[in-house]
Amino acid sequence: MRKRVGTFRTSEFRILNWFRISIFVLRIWLGLDAQTQRTNAMNLSAKTEYAAIAMMELAASYGSGDPVRIRKIADAHGIPNRFLVQILLQLKAAGFVTSTRGAAGGYELVRDPATVTLLDIIEAVEGQSGPAESNAEVETPGSRVLLAAWREVAENQRRQLAEISLADLVSRVRSQASGMFYI
Predict the structure, then answer these.
(1) Mean pLDDT of the region 75-85
(2) pTM above 0.85, yes or no
């Protein structure tokens, strides 16, 4: 009995795997596999999620003239104070918030909530992401198709995040809470 060992077998295996992965990704992308789509949702860091929550709180009080205290945001959402301070300092450096010192101090949103998007927040906290790159050792038709699909999905995601403003989110929360603002 001869065993098929060598590059032919390995390349055959790689092509088959890339084909399976490509089909899997396309099924998710086209919405054909709802269970997988639910379990493989967009992964965000805690830092990004907390930044978005803090920005929504600041957007809810935009224009009131009263700074929002860190403790209020942290206690309402279970965010560690020190972590929230670091996040708000990063958002301040990015030009989204300003701080006021003293007993009546806190943070305020600098820009109109209608002009700040989820993409802005993610990029301020995580940095701008570059285009998707392939990790495949050997470039194949399957790997090129998959990379093109990854890039298209990433571009669609960026476009959707750029369309959702803080004003939209605050409006959604207010309509769900019937006049009470809880995130």
Answers:
(1) 91
(2) no
